[in-house]
Write a structure and sequence with these properties.
heterodimer, A: mainly alpha, about 0% strand, B: alpha/beta, 6-stranded mixed beta sheet, 4-stranded antiparallel beta sheet, about 35% helix
Amino acid sequence: MNWRTVRAIAGKDLLEVRKNRLAIWSILGLSFILSVGMPLLIGLLPFDVGPSGGDLGPFEALMTLLPPALQGLPDGARMVVLMLGYFLAPLFLIIPLMVAAIIGAESFVGEKERHTLEGLLYTPATDLELYAGKVLAGAVPSVLAAYLNFTAYAIVVNLVSAHIVGGIWFPTVTALALAVWVGPAVALLGVSASVLVSTRVETFLEANQLTGLLSLVIVGLMVGQGSGLLLLSLPVLLLVGLVIYAVDLVLIRLGAAVFSRDRLMARA
Amino acid sequence: MTAAIAADGLVRSFGPVRAVDGVSFEVGEGEVFGLLGPNGAGKTTLIRLLAGVLTPEAGSARVLGLDPTADGPAVRSRCGVLTETPAVYERLTARQNLAFAADVFGVPVPEVQHRVSDLLARFSLQDRADEPVGGFSKGMKQRLALARALVHDPEFLFLDEPTAGLDPVASRQVHDLVGTLRDEGRTVVLCTHHLVEAEALCDRVGVLAKGRLIALGTVRELSNRLLATSPVELSFIDPVTDAIAATVGAVPGVTVTERTERRLVLAAPDDGAAADAIGAAVRAGGRVLAAVRGEHTLEEVYFALQEVPA
């Protein structure tokens, strides 16, 4: 594989995305809402920070996830920690997914819609190099977006809750695992799925909508956690990440295997 | 003639439609070859097969000695392709478009900047090199697409409708460029349905209809094969009388196709019949000033081909 070709294709795609104002504002807007707005809102809610020992009802099971140092906090503070550190945290995974979906969905079908696909297919890039370039173009910014948003989220969470919790407490080990281990897995899931979808559909909108279905994975994680069915403890997160990486691998291999210049050109 | 392209029985269908149906032909190195035919005749599909981006269902091809199906990347690295639509990245600048192409086509890194600047200057785009291409006119985009097709200094060029939608000045620039490419010894396959363009630029032409190659050769060869009677024009000092016209028209095989005050245009099957017609005109009292055997235009050949069952 010629990595200069792969880098050139990825670099060109990234340059195009940077000049796509709609995409940039969508990403920035969603990032702000999820990484700054949501924790800010939760942090500013008037929680009762009275003594601990009260019955927190359906959230009692989730409280077991808290690190020992945070277990002794007043109930209101524990609720804040729970909301910001456990319940809301998986939501930031939507950002890498969305970035991947926008870039990945644009990759082939977007080029087709802009009548540039034919020119790209006439280059000496092999099918594998074309596919790898497109995957790389989606993977780099979505992983980067995941880390940047997690950093922003951590700063805001500590800003709004340090006075309640009694100091800087975020990220917790599970949140760190979510960001460092599960985040890139989800980003790759978005990229591999959206590039694959992009080679098979006729319009960007179609690709984007199909890839958007992946956000159900995140919703599933949140619902699982909120309902107590799937408590995102460290071992569970490691397992979830592993499963998603396995799916990524299958999707990337499948995408590269079924990628066909002939098929794309026949429909260009 | 060493063949730069040798196609043998190429077939490709899309669903029930046979876009290319058993096409065989050769193009020599350094030749400018025209592929003619109406929209949907199969010209673009044929180029795609030869560039290795489509796979034939049957038949084979060699391009610069390589099999496009097995060695597609190698074939494409030595070919430049101008697609029917300019296919440039409108959000990127002209310089970024060319730099991207240079990278993908493997232009040595130290040469990229120099090569890009040279092409921008050659195609008169240097003043707007750093503007997004979306604001360019169609002619400028086409010039940029041509520059991109040349960025890796290809031995071979496929130009698909290079003047479609261009104004006369821009078209003339493209024609000049094709002339330059020929002078540089590059092989060019030019797809067009502009017959005047093909006649002016191409050494030989192939005519496609419904995916089949229905004629191949120089304009003169096709003319001789398809149009048995090339026109002979007689100019007279005095007005042409009915008697002169009738005498000329009576020569075996000769027909008067057009008559003006001092001119007769004849259809004569060969030079002998044309000479007999001139003699007859003189004997009938006509003072012949000039006799010229004309060439059929490609347009005449093309339309004659449309009447031949494919």
